[in-house]
Specification:
By secondary structure, the protein is an alpha/beta fold. Helices cover 54% and strands 12% of the residues. A 6-stranded parallel sheet has the order 3-2-1-4-5-6, sandwiched between helices. Strands 7-8-9 form a 3-stranded mixed sheet, with helices on one face. Helix 7 crosses helix 11.
Amino acid sequence: MTIAINQITVLAVGLIGGSLAKALKANGFSGEIVGWGRREVSLKKGLELGVIDRYSLDLKEAVTGADLIVVATPTLIAADMLKQLASIVDEQVIITDVASVKGNLFTAAKEAFGKVPPNLVLGHPIAGSEKSGVDAARADLFVNHRVILTPTEETNPDALQAVKSLWESTGADLVEMSVDEHDEVLAATSHLPHVLAYTLVDALAGSPEQQNIFRFAAGGFRDFTRIASSDPTMWHEISLANRDALLKMIDRFTDQLGDLRQAIANGDSDNIVGSFTRAKSARDKFAQMLEEQQK
């Protein structure tokens, strides 16, 4: 059975929630998109830009009549949103999200609803920007970017298909995996790199030679540390929400860095070259995969 989606309510109309709304409108969604948030100035801006059709600061009012709700709040707030939604929405309403961590939301949903809601389809678009807010929203943000969905055995197939159709209309590529696999993969490929970028810039900024360091930093430093310009509050929340998987990746990296430090201290050229060669080979394969995906 196909579920008709006539009203979508987006909880928090920022970069991701706003971009999803713009993408849906740009690709033929003819229903109503309602925005909710705590800052009316942002919601008014979204209305002025045509990102949403109307808004409400009252959560119950915003979700009334919704066929599908997109939780686009920061990660830790998203868990609380699920608890609030449990008492105000009918079970036939589809709920999805865009958060970077799934485990804490899965747990929060089970606690709030007393079970895994069949119409809950947790998702995560692998797309973003260092910019934030509805002003930065783009209709093409998800084109050729992956969206990971984490359905469970309890997931209603019709609800899953509705969320798939929603993302497919934005030009995204869909992938399904388990909640645990998602959090481990993202800890390694996204959360750890952000932690490293923040830590490197923070360490260098505290150095007595910081002016010369930043003055003569070349493209490699710029490219590697670009993500340190991302929203610190958001990444603090992601780090805490995915604590176990992230700590596992940090420990693995720390061990690897320790081995490399020892090799450099000992002048162990074989281990240094071996580490760098393996990394280059892995990176080249990754680049090739990206090229093939874009063809």
